[in-house]
Amino acid sequence: MRTFIYKYKSHIITFVFSLVFGAAVFCLYFFLKNQSLKDAVDACSIAGVALIGGGLMVIITRLGAFDTFAYGFKQLLTSMFNKDPNMFNSMADYKIQKYDQRKKKKKTYLMLFLAGLLFIIAVIVLEIILRLQIK
């Protein structure tokens, strides 16, 4: 059991923080509204969509969509503060280095999707309960 925990430590931490974030979004929306079942459905859906959207942003970032902006910003800062003006010879060198760094990272964004999916399942269950109460 310990080896499982150590092996997937970053996944577990990401999943727990995702659930805490989702619960915080739920509580923020639910307790600022009328605290009805409809508001619980809305709060769960907002939390689920926020987590799934966060997971999508992590995937987009890991695919390198923002590398051009990051490279330009780093070049600007190094030219302003004269740290090491030749950190990277070109944009291609920077992209290769970032690609190598990303290959080593774990796929923790899956935990964001899983936590978001749990909130979406809660939305479906609460919506069914809400529909049964209306009839």
Question: How is this fold's topology laid out?
Answer:
Elements: H1 2-7, H2 9-32, H3 37-62, H4 67-81, H5 91-104, H6 109-134
Query: Helix and strand string, N-terminal first?
Result: HHHHHH
What gap, in angstroms, lies between the N and C termini?
Answer: 48 Å
The helix tally amounts to: 6
| Tally of discrete structural domains | 1
- The helix content, as a percent range, equals over 70%
The major beta sheet can be summarized as: none
Structural class: mainly alpha
Radius of gyration: 21 Å
Please state the overall shape, judged from the principal axes of the Cα atoms.
Answer: elongated
Mean pLDDT: 84
Instruction: Give start-end ranges of low-pLDDT stretches.
Output: none
The strand count comes to 0
Q: What is the strand content?
A: under 5%
Describe this protein's structure.
The structure is a single chain. The chain has 135 residues and is mainly alpha-helical. It has one domain (2-134). The chain has helices spanning 2-7, 9-32, 37-62, 67-81, 91-104, 109-134. Helix 2 packs antiparallel against helix 3, helix 2 runs parallel beside helix 6 (109-134) and helix 3 packs antiparallel against helix 6 (109-134). It starts with a helix and ends with a helix. 13% of the residues are buried. The mean pLDDT is 84.
Name some characteristics of this structure.
mainly alpha
